[in-house]
Design a protein that fits this description.
CATH superfamily of one domain: Acetylglutamate kinase-like
Radius of gyration: 24 Å
Structural class: alpha/beta
CATH architecture of one domain: 3-Layer(aba) Sandwich
Shape: globular
Strand order of the largest sheet: 3-6-2-1-9-11-12-10
Largest sheet: 8 strands, mixed
Oligomer: single chain
Number of helices: 12
Bound molecules: aspartic acid, magnesium ion
Length: 406
């Protein structure tokens, strides 16, 4: 008998009515003859509320204790769902991270799953019991509770599906699937029937919030088919699967946008070996992730160097670079927080030439200046002025033929 893993996010279990609705879905799936493991998030807003509570005690709460606190959110939902199922006469049992044996490293607040014990879940499934697992949590080799980072119950679900070799991991959420663009920005965005792991990974890394990025890495590594769909309708969602031949027919699958970066420019930097290392080492040591980098050589033999960092780290990075600039004799440091990054993603780019040119021509037609460009094999991103972000997404969506028929 095939195992199905279902994961329900915070909005899907936001109150007791919704938990009852989830129980209906779970019972329906079980009656179709599937062995079922259900992973739950904390009720919507609960994790944020617990973090706020902790900060009232200590603005920088102890990380071990914070994880002990945050794990209670998922513990509550798992118990409530199991209770709801049992009250309907359906055998169900809740399990916490340590009971499943979701073993992680020691990194509180952002732990990585190392391995998952399946014996206890298997035993329950063999007895016809629905297993309800508290997502987002695990335990380190010393038995301490750890959590997997915000949105981490997606990763719990995919990892458990991989460990159980489940037929499918269904991610139930408040949107009907993965779209060609954010429907709030592009009214004619379409739901994708299928998307490859790689495309999903690129999209997750540039601001699409449908799935936690680590869950996609896990799914790709262990080839777990993931079905992203809505809790509130029976409509099919989007299958996230290995790349197939047919996928190449579309050049671009989706257009995304993020306003989470800032840009820093060092002007007139001496052009000699070791300078880039001087510029980037202190930022790295401060734990700041640099994304795009461009360097232009000037006629004078000096260079300008521009790079992006997360907006949250902007002030810190700027202060570091002002110091570096003084040391290496750069002319000045400029910063800009009002930028946006628009990206097009699609495996079809591998086999279709001219995609970048079409992207640039589309932006040019709208009078949008491109400040920076970066590419991967299946993605092209442009940094532009923030005020043009929405316009850029809409025109690229049309230009690449993604608009739904009017
Ligand atoms: N409750 C956790 C969070 O809000 C984990 C999750 O929902 O996936 O980040
Ligand atoms: Mg979530």
């Amino acid at each position: 008998m095939g195992v199905i893993v279902q994961k329900y996010g915070g909005t899907s279990v936001a109150d007791l009515d919704r938990i009852r609705h989830v129980a209906d879905r779970v019972i329906r799936t079980a009656r179709q003859g599937h062995a079922l493991v259900v992973i739950v998030s904390a009720m919507a807003g609960v994790t944020d509320g617990l973090i706020a509570l902790a900060r009232r005690v200590d603005p920088e709460p102890d990380k071990r204790e914070l994880d002990a606190l945050l794990a209670t959110g998922e513990q509550t939902t798992a118990a409530l769902l199991a209770m709801t199922l049992r009250a309907r006469g359906v055998p169900a049992q809740s399990l916490l991270g340590f009971q499943v044996e979701v073993r992680t490293d020691f990194c509180y607040g952002n732990a990585r799953i190392q391995d998952i014990g399946v014996e206890r879940m298997r035993r329950l499934l063999d007895q016809g019991v629905i297993v309800v697992v508290a997502g987002f949590q695990g335990c380190d080799p010393e038995g301490n509770i750890t959590t997997l980072g915000r949105g981490g119950s997606d990763t719990s679900a995919v990892a458990i599906a991989a460990a159980l070799r489940a037929d499918c991991c269904e991610i139930y959420t408040d949107v009907p699937g993965v779209f060609t663009a954010d429907p709030n920005l592009v009214p004619r965005a379409r739901k994708l029937e299928r998307i490859s792991y790689e495309e999903m990974l690129e999209m997750a890394s540039i601001g699409a919030k449908v799935l936690q990025i680590r869950s996609v890495e896990f799914a790709m590594k262990y080839r777990v088919p993931v079905h992203v769909r809505s809790t509130f309708s029976d409509e099919e969602g989007t299958m996230v699967v290995a790349e197939e031949n047919g996928m190449e027919r579309v050049v671009v699958s989706a257009v995304t946008m993020s306003k989470t970066d800032a840009r820093i420019t060092l002007k007139n930097v001496p052009d000699r070996p070791g300078i880039a290392a001087r510029i980037f080492t202190p930022v790295a040591e401060a734990g700041i992730c640099v994304d795009m980098i461009i360097q232009n050589t000037r006629a004078s033999g000096a260079t300008d160097l521009t790079f992006t960092v997360p907006r949250a780290d902007y002030r810190k990075a700027l202060a570091i670079e002002r110091q570096v600039a003084a040391e290496i004799g750069a002319e000045e440091v400029l910063g800009d927080e009002s930028i946006a990054k628009v990206s097009i993603t699609g495996v079809g780019m591998r086999s279709h030439p001219g995609v970048a040119a079409r992207m640039f021509a589309t932006l040019a037609r709208e009078g949008i200046n491109i400040l920076m460009i970066s590419t991967s094999e299946i993605r092209i991103s442009c940094v532009i002025e923030q005020k043009y972000a929405e316009l850029a997404v809409q025109s690229l969506h049309s230009a690449f033929g993604l608009d739904a028929p009017a």
